[in-house]
């Protein structure tokens, strides 16, 4: 899965998207100018290869790529804060906001948002912070399940991130390679709980570019222990495993882009993301060609949207209108 450079397709974009090892496109804020432009860009991509899975990070707060014409969504931690005052209100809000987020994307012919964030954090980690529902793992489990249910009600697959938890390290894996020296028992008692509890609810999981040095010397996304032994065998997870972006600094420890793709696939990832680095994406595709790697698209097939909703129908939907009112009522954005 890779990205494109701007608000419309270039000839190079079209050529790259035709490559048989490309399975999807991830969108960023730079790809969005207006609702009409987004519709046209998606139509253009579908005309090149209709089957590509189209994804975005539309979590809310500082990680919301599409804003104009979309509902402004709160960072997830605001839902955790509401829970402290009124658990019942927070439960309903969490499910409704997840449903609304997913429904709006589906109305534009997108397939998925990489959500929910299941990291346990309270502004300790520079990469996570208020993207997390709470510093309380029990609350992350409870609201995380409701968020997944809301996405499923809309017809969107849910991706839990960042396994087994990114929230206890200060470093930002976009810029450096974080290390967490806690024991496996400590991690299991806190960060891992949401993934253990929700593994059978999630359609996909995205691992963190974190090295848990007391457990395994490799970053999680390159670790057969974490992905094959723990996630697949111990937790019995049957869904799709997406790598986190292999252009992040936390992935650089294993070498160039060919090495990153190789290590991620050998560790157990089904789909590798190479974003914001076209040269790296092309190097990755060339590596797969030379190795004659056979792409298995079943893992991506599971991530396609399950329903399609007309935008005009959504904007007249009582649940959509009521959820927007609740966001305003509770001052979430």
Task: Provide a brief overview of the structure.
With 333 residues, the chain is α/β, with parallel strands linked by helices.
Q: Calculate the mean pLDDT score and round it.
A: 93
Silhouette: globular
- Through-space gap between termini: 31 Å
Please name the fourth-level CATH homologous superfamily: Glycoside hydrolase, family 3, N-terminal domain
User: Which strand order does the major sheet show?
Assistant: 6-8-10-11
Beta-strand content: 5-15%
What kind of sheet is the major sheet? 4 strands, parallel
Share of helical residues? 40-55%
Class based on secondary structure composition and strand pairing: alpha/beta
Q: How is this structure best described in words?
A:
By secondary structure, the protein is of the alpha/beta class. It has a single domain (11-329), classed as Glycoside hydrolase, family 3, N-terminal domain (TIM Barrel). The protein contains 13 helices and 11 strands. A 4-stranded parallel β-sheet has the order 6-8-10-11, with helices on one face. Helix 3 (76-85) runs antiparallel to helix 4 (87-107), helix 4 (87-107) packs parallel to helix 5 and helix 4 crosses helix 13 (318-329). It is globular.
């Amino acid at each position: 899965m890779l990205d494109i450079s701007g608000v419309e397709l270039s000839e190079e974009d079209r050529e790259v998207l035709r490559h048989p090892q490309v399975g999807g496109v991830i969108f960023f804020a730079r790809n969005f100018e207006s609702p009409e432009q987004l519709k046209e860009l998606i139509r253009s991509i579908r005309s090149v290869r209709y089957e590509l899975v189209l994804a975005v990070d539309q979590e809310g707060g500082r990680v919301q790529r599409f804003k104009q014409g979309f509902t402004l969504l709160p960072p997830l931690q605001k839902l955790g804060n509401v829970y402290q005052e009124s658990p019942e209100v927070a439960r309903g809000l969490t499910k409704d906001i997840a449903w609304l987020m997913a429904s709006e994307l589906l109305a534009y012919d997108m397939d998925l948002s990489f959500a929910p964030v299941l990291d346990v954090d309270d502004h300790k980690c520079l990469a996570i912070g208020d993207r997390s529902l709470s510093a309380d793992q029990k609350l992350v489990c409870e609201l995380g399940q409701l968020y997944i249910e809301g996405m499923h009600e809309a017809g969107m697959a849910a991706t839990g991130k960042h396994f087994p938890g990114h929230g206890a390290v200060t470093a930002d894996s976009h810029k450096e390679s974080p290390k967490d020296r806690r024991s496996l028992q400590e991690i299991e008692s806190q960060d891992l709980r949401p993934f253990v509890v929700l593994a059978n609810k999630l359609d996909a999981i995205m691992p963190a570019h974190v090295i848990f040095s007391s457990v395994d010397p490799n970053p999680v996304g390159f670790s057969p222990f974490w992905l094959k032994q723990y996630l697949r065998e111990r937790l019995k997870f049957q869904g799709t495993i997406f790598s986190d972006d292999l252009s992040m600094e936390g992935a650089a420890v294993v070498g160039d882009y060919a090495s990153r793709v190789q290590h991620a696939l050998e560790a157990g990832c089904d789909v590798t993301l190479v974003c914001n680095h076209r040269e790296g994406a092309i190097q990755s595709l060339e590596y797969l060609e030379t190795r004659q790697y056979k792409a298995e698209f079943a893992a991506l097939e599971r991530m396609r949207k399950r329903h399609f909703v007309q935008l005009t129908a959504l904007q007249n939907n009582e649940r959509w209108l009521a959820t927007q009112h609740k966001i305003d009522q509770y001052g979430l954005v």
